[in-house]
């Protein structure tokens, strides 16, 4: 069954009148089309019953690959009001309307003003039911993306590090991702020495030097599916405390991996990693959740975080990425994507997990 | 006066209780900080009176450059609810709340659920009043971005075109933008032959060949201000009709440029370009508005479009970019950024405006 038809089944079952999808990964997941993140509205109107319609700016309409058996294309011209066009395609004006999470506020507020009797809610509780569980083709795509990223991780063991700045290495990682088969590069964090303590560090002009540990967290897309992996590199001799922290981190990541299987609550995977790190005395330095789902979006459901009691299920793909961050000194993180099989988890990243010593 | 203080003055004057800024260019415009486009909420709470607060994920907080005299930083931890943190910093629960246009729907809907008595509206009618009129430092930044893009436009006249695919040329344009001083590349459209008829064409594997006209529309950021320019390149001999269309296009762009000055309605600039193209018989092939404002965002107010009767004013910066698109055959577009001076407009792009003949 086509994905849009499955969504319509869910909408009808929940009594939701229509689903409106704009920016974010829902739209490409259901229609194959990526909206441009601009002020001209692109929005798919998926009613619980009947024909789905993709409302798209006229000058972007040529970018849409038609799927006439799945949705109709309705281009809107520069002097039309696209919100009115969307409203015209709703089955009713006072039903429940589910809106994609990344839709811009300006459009939600306009829709609410026009549809004063409708009840708006997030589309994610429905779309996630489909997107979270990957089918065989999706797992294959995630595996290919992971293998491509792994080839970059392996090549990074042999490049020069000392004397270059973070931005320069980040640019090289981006180039390598493309060389190894990525269509798009989404991010290439290079965080050296004390900068490693900032988990989402933006690469700077800081020059990497002997004694640094460098966190490299990178990913992108291969055929619309995402990669995301983190490895660390020690330039020359490794400080004793860092070496010990790395052993702890690797054990924590392994513990989470061994815990992950269908039926286990998402938070239990987080707890498994956190326990190992806390027991070793680094608890307060692990400042983020253990992982996030991945698919057509780098971060999606399920989130591997304390408080998420949702049972994991076969086909779910997510990151396991504990980290230890000591402000002002260093940071380390180790990240693999895994996918759940009937009785456990399979890693989709398999580059070496040691703290690589580099030049 | 600091920008946040100016915004607070506007909020107080309009009776708006607070402004909430998340993704998009408002947040960096007012705080210097770019939020990451991820599921963890970053949001500045700017009350009409009192201290502004930047609510930011704990693991991204190290990325914020503090401005303690302008706003306080409130990191939130992985098991906190950031929407509750935002609500706690509002001066009241039932006032008017202005929300940045690109804030994700999921956060707007959550805020609305918690603040059932508040009235939500777009922040843009207020923020645009500040952002639209560029001060001297901003004009200087836009000029530098324009000059950097112009150097790329000039270099493109001497590269090889025939036999290479669009994606390859697009990658080269991105590299050139960085070489010429851009910090970030936002887009590099390369649309060859019949692909040129799609104004927002995504570069493909299509191999450029003799007889093609290639539309190159590219831009990015220099010191947080945007560039955006379009030039076209003819590979070898130019078809007679294309040459004639180019002359019309250049005249249309010049007519719009000469019309643009303080006091003129935005739509009159659009009409000036459109009239020239229509008079030459290409009217139905000019399928988009004539331009958009530019600053810390590539597309912002004012929009140069039929229906926008707003008078233009000194300091406003926007694109003038008419195009002619003949489906299945070719497309052309010519784009400069201009800024309004006391008695006219100044072009911030000044690379040659001919249809360059290339190899």
Outline the structure in words.
The structure is a homodimer of 359-residue chains. Chain A has 9 helices and 18 strands. In chain A, strands 4-3-2-1-5-6 form a 6-stranded mixed beta sheet. In chain A, strands 7, 8, 9, 10 and 18 form a 5-stranded mixed beta sheet that branches. The termini of chain A are far apart. Chain A folds into 2 domains: 3-130, Creatine Amidinohydrolase, Chain A, domain 1 (3-Layer(aba) Sandwich), CATH 3.40.350.10; 136-358, Creatinase/methionine aminopeptidase superfamily (Creatine Amidinohydrolase, Alpha-Beta Complex). Chain A is an alpha+beta fold and 359 residues long. The mean pLDDT of chain A is 96. Chain A is 31% helix and 25% strand. Chain A has helices at residues 3-14, 26-31, 82-88, 105-114, 124-131, 136-155, 166-179, 240-259, 266-279; strands spanning 18-21, 43-47, 52-57, 71-76, 96-99, 119-122, 184-192, 213-222, 225-226, 229-235, 291-293, 300-304, 317-320, 323-326, 330-333, 336-341, 344-347, 356-358. The interface between A and B is large, with 40 and 43 residues.
């Amino acid at each position: 069954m086509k994905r849009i038809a499955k969504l319509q089944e869910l909408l009808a079952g929940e009594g939701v009148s229509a689903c409106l999808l704009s920016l974010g990964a829902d739209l490409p997941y259901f229609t194959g089309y990526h909206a441009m993140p601009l002020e001209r509205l692109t929005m798919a109107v998926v009613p619980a019953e009947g024909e789905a319609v993709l409302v798209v700016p006229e000058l972007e309409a040529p970018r849409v690959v038609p799927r006439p058996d799945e949705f109709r294309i309705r281009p809107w011209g520069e002097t039309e009001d696209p919100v009115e066009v969307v409203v015209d395609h709703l089955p009713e004006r006072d039903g429940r309307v589910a809106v994609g999470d990344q839709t811009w506020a300006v459009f939600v507020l306009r829709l609410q003003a026009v549809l004063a009797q409708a009840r708006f809610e997030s589309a994610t509780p429905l779309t996630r039911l489909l997107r979270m569980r990957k089918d065989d083709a999706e797992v294959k795509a995630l595996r290919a993306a992971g293998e491509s990223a792994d080839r970059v991780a392996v090549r990074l063991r042999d490049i020069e590090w000392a004397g270059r700045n973070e931005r320069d290495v980040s640019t090289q990682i981006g180039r390598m991702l493309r060389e190894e088969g990525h269509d798009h590069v989404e991010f290439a964090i290079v965080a050296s020495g004390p900068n490693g303590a900032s988990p989402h560090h933006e690469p700077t002009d800081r020059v990497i030097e002997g004694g640094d540990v460098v966190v490299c967290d990178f990913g992108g897309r291969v055929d619309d599916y995402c990669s995301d992996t983190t490895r660390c590199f020690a330039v020359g001799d490794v400080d004793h405390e860092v070496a010990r922290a790395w052993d702890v981190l690797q054990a924590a990541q392994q513990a989470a991996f061994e815990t992950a299987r269908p039926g286990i609550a998402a938070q239990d995977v987080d707890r498994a990693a956190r326990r190992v790190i806390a027991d070793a005395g680094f608890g307060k330095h692990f400042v983020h959740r253990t992982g996030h789902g991945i698919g057509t979006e780098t971060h999606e459901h399920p989130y591997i975080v304390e408080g998420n009691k949702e049972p994991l299920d076969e086909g779910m793909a997510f990151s396991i990425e504990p980290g230890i961050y000591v402000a002002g000194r260093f940071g380390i993180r180790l990240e693999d994507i895994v996918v759940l099989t009937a009785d456990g988890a399979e890693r989709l990243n398999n580059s070496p997990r040691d703290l690589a010593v580099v030049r």
